[in-house]
Amino acid sequence: MINRLKWKVKQHIYKRHQRSEIRLSHNNIYILPSKDGGFFIAVALLNFVLGINYQNNLILAVSYIMAVMMIAALFLGFFNLNNTNVRYLGSNANFSPYSSSIRISISSSAEIQSLRLSSEYNQTATHISKVSDEKVLELGAPELPRGVYETGVIKILSYFPFGLIRTWSYIKPNDAFYVYPTPLPVIDTEFSFGSASNTSQSIQQKERSVEFDHLSQYQKGMSLSRVSWKHYAKTEQMLVKQHAPESADLHRVIFDYSKLSGSKEERLSKLCTLVLDADKQQTSYALLLQQNRIPFGQGETHKLCCLEALSEF
Amino acid sequence: MNSSFPKWYYSTSLFLWLLSIILVDDFGIGFVGLCTVLTLWQASRLVTKPSVLSIRFINLVTLLGAIATASLIGLKNSVNVFVALMLVASLLKQVHATHARQFTQICILNFFTYPCLFLFTQSIFAAFLVLILLAVNLAIMLNLEQNLRFKSALKISAKGLVLVLPVATLLVIFLPKLPAFWQLPAPQNQAKTGLSENVDPFNIANLSQSSDLVFRASFEDTQQTGPFYWRAIIHDEFDGRQWKVSEYQGTNIRALPKDPIGTATIIAQPSQLPWLYGLSYSYSTNAKLNSNVFGTVYLKNLSAKPVEYQIDFTDFEPQDSLRPWYYSRNIALPDDINQQARQLARDWDSQSTTTSQFIELMKRYFLQNGFVYTLTPTTTQSDNRIDDFLFSSFNGFCGHYASAAAFLLRSAGIPARLISGYLGGEKNDNQGYYSVYQYDAHAWVEYFTPGIGWQRLDPTAWIAPERMTGSLSQLEQLSSEFKSGLGYSLIGLSNWQSINWLRLQLEELDYQWTRVVINFDKEKQGALFKEWFGSNGQLWAGIFSLFMLLLLSIALFYLSKQLTRHKCPIELVYYNAIVSDFKEQLSGTTAKQHIVELCKLFPELEVSLWQFYQLIEKSQYQQKPLNKLELGELKRLYKSIKRKARK
Amino acid sequence: MNEEIKKLTDALSTVILEKPEQIKLAICSLLCRGHLLIEDLPGMGKTTLSHSLADVLGLTYRRVQFTSDLLPADITGTSIFNREHQSFEFHPGPIFSQVLLADEINRASPKTQSALLESMEEHQVTIDGVSHELPSPFFVIATQNPQHQSGTHPLPESQLDRFFMRISLGYPSEIAEAQLIKLAGKARKLTRAPQVIDGKTLLAYQQVVPNIVLSDAIIDYILRLVNYTRSSGQFSDPLSPRASIALAAASRAYAFISGRDFVIPDDVQAVFTSVCAHRLGVTTTNEAEVQTQVFQNVPVH
User: Fold this and answer.
1) Distance (Å) from the C-alpha of residue B115 to the closest C-alpha of chain A?
2) CATH number belonging to the domain at C212-301, selected among 3.40.50.12160, 1.10.8.80, 1.20.1530.20, 3.30.70.890
3) Contacts of A163 (CB under 8 A, 6+ apart)
4) Measured between beta carbons, which residues in chain C are less than 8 angstroms from residue A89?
5) Which of A66, B210, B387, C166 could pair with A44 as two cysteines, CB 3.0-4.6 Å apart?
């Protein structure tokens, strides 16, 4: 019950932070005494009681000093974060056991002291002791299995100035980051991708039988027989099946998910290795993931597109 | 693990150890030893590469420490044990603290441990010390959160505390003084030298002299002159060895006498005895005090801090006779001792017709037999100690003379009793108060004459009349003897004028501190409000304090805003103010472009805008700091631009 | 504006019409001993500008038209066997001049390009193990066509960095173009800019520039600009420290041209695009957009 309520409140709060850039101000900074702050207040109260009961002005003064300190800490903590600009820059994808990361930029015209940033994927906070002007931070998301992950809530927290006050805020960029499959060595001989042309050729042979290359937009004058009616039925998009030219050069490969052995994850891992190797050798390649087809291509963007498809699968 | 904290963090251990040394009188040398061991352990762990301590080991050590503390101090002194345990706990926690959070907790705990010193002493030095300790403590807390150097962290924390201090002071003054919620046990002070309830002067070989302050007194009527006999304890029972405190010392008077001849305000230092100090027949209306039948006052409850009270005093009322039971009580003497003295008294009695004649004979005897006043008298253990004094040793201090005189009076059937208290006091000429120290302790006699009542008789005055005026410290004759008994203290060096001056200044400071700070209580608060705000003082003070709180929080708000703001040169502050006031801030626009645009907006201001720009340019781009004249000019331009542009 | 420099720009303005900024920037580059890359479409006056620059400064001037079959030796020179003396004799190439105009540098093969850029950096040419010192001042003005033109070998980033500035002239205004048309038929003599200063004066100027005051506020501003390119994540090749040094030097020269002995932020902004755009890998067409973006995100104070 309480957990549900907590969850509801949190969702409500997060709603206000669903932006990729946020300027921290009085309506999105939260301040509460930290655990140590609670202890501090308790000690101040104890001093107060002691001062009253012993009619001891000095102990009383100490308890008042503590009270004023606490209030000052509230203000200092607030102004420390106030007017800070937090911006989500994007994410860096990585291969599965390694940590993907979320890039956050923090900038302020004033100096910000002692910041801690944490994401949903990494509760141990990154601690920065000082930010002046601007700082770009990478928040790691370690040990995640392959997949696409929502960027989630990033928490900006500070215990400035004495560790008695918790000042915090959130940013929830509406974005996702990828964790690519772990590249696994491909043992299946027929699909081991190498520079040896005979293996390539064997792939090529299979590819010819497929013949299909990619879909492209239908334009007037094209043969209606080549229209992919399946697509039209589903999406009402007129797409035309493009067939690979007969004289496809030898440096073109299709990596087909269904032709690999092993479990789903294993296959994806192998595909990942294949894509990386192909990219290294500047081969043009296409990816076939059951329904999802990625046409032939080359270069960095193509590689990323393939890797992302593998992560999404 | 320990070395992960900067070394200066561990000054805390040293401070706690220092506290244990300061409180050695209350906690005993054994506890200081325990603290020393713990501190040395900490020090050794700092020097060597320490191993991580297991939790079980720490728990064991903590338990042992607690048991040791309790057994060293004794569970009876609950407050002492409690404070001592806090000290030990804080010390032990530091030994095994490995995480930043643990150290934060230690620091927070110290916010309680350090002020505990105030339970035992509230001197200005203690306050100062605690303030310094708290500043260091705060510096550690700052450092734990931000990586600062020791010096800058301490600077910030000290600055902060100094800023907060007046606020706390105002709060102490203006917040209503609540009554104590419940009665807490008072910390027990170890007995200090001073008066004792039973007087046996013949047992003392060397009257120990202490320069500890006993009380300070100031008179409403500053014309009061001495000698001041401060009465504290009435001894009316002599058992042959010692004069015992009267059974009626704690019996209160029912009705207070009407017309006092004087009023005095006294601030008495804490003592292990409840008996306080008064003049002649004194009584007090203070709620913490009782007034007894002898005309002295005493505390209802012992206090660990100085007590301030007011006494009214009158002369003794003339009395025709004593009640028979009381008469017999005041002439009672044990049989079979001091036969020679009894004989002497009987002789004088037969030679005299009135009490004063009897006293005259006694005085003559003392003066003619070469009696000497000394602080190092001959001791005796015999039963006939008064005989020994009167007929063989001929030397002694006030106790001897008073004891002998009272014995002689009683032997002659004259009711007499011994009074112990203090004589004189050192006058502070600036503030007009008297300071009375332990070495001013005195004993004298009161005797009863029918029709006149009780009268004071000070036989010591016959031998050493200088003793009557002023304090013992000002007595030339005995100075060397007196000082050798004092040991090491400032007053021992009073021959040097500068040191004496310093001593008096410190003394005065302490007086003000005690009067103004420590004893600021509900009555004083009320009086203060009345003085400041008139008859509706409480109400106005409440309104005023609310208003002040508001003001304070606003000030705090802006102060903290200022503190966190980037330090910006004043030229740029002006520039930014002008720019942001009149147009939306385009961050990429240069100063010159801004000025050009502003000139278009306010053509009439062109000249001053360009002058303003010239100065900005000089300071910011030519790297030539502006002199005072130019800064003034800049400010003037800034103001005029702002004013004119607003129109 | 500095009087002498004003004469220089005036002289240049008679030839390159209504492009005072570009002229100033070109002079800036000269004052900082930096090489200049002019990127523009053919026929926009690239050559004329470089030519005139050499003329007004009174410097010796050579021009090499870069083609795909140009060999390194065609620029640096070769040793030729002299029968009379029975020995090899060094015949210096066009690079041995005070101003070298490398026309359409991106048409040449990478090998040739790097030979030129190497000698630009080292200020000497080594042939058959003998080093030949290049004249001083030595100043390369390279022109290139925008990258999308066919048959070009784009300069790699590392070599672009060797150029102190990249400027482009852009189309002239209508009035200017009308005047150009009028002048078109006349003999080159008439359209030539007169010599205004000599090599010595230029050298003296070059020594003054580093003494221009660069205040802490300006250094901060430069650092903020550079940091922005590094932290914003929008540039694939953020600015290197060499770029920040170049930016500072160019700002100083610009301040000097404007007749000041200290730098103001306007100077930095004026030179920023020319100094930094090519190092950031921004094409000429995107320059303006990037400039506004950077300036808006980096506060001056």
Assistant:
1) 6
2) 1.10.8.80
3) A34, A36, A37, B101, B104, B141, B144, B145
4) 232-233
5) A66
